[in-house]
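JOB MANIFEST
job_type = single_chain_structure
chain_count = 1
residues = 151
[input]
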Amino acid sequence: MKIYTGNFANTKKYTAAGLFPVSIALSARYFNGALYRKLNPDYSYMNDLESEYVPKFNQKLKNLSAKSVIKELEELSLGKDVVLLCHEKAGEFCHRMLVADWLNRELGIEVPELSKMEDSYSSEFVKKTQESRDEIKNGKCKKIQTEMIWE
């Protein structure tokens, strides 16, 4: 399983590519997919300056096991590649960058931001989309509930 980050604006593109979108945002009003609350920021520091926010969120991450997070995401996605979603556009400060850095530090996992990837990556999207369609046609995919929450 590979892990990526991205924003909600591109959810349809990610899904079409066969990726499993997972919200790590505090709120996701128009998102009907999986929610993974362990990687949400806390309300208590949502309005803090970035210089105050970062150490608080990193402390939250320190209290988690990166291996357990990966295992739970793999179970949630049924082994599919995952894209961790939040609201901010690529290039704007967002806690998903902190999550990506944490996973890299703790486990050596590279977690690229899909919103920043070049068009050459779109060929992989096309391939994954076709593979997903083939799995559905061949009955290899199970229908899963549309909203799953891990707390």
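[summary]
The chain has one domain: 3-150.
The helical segments are 11-16, 50-62, 66-76, 95-107, 122-137.
exit_status = 0
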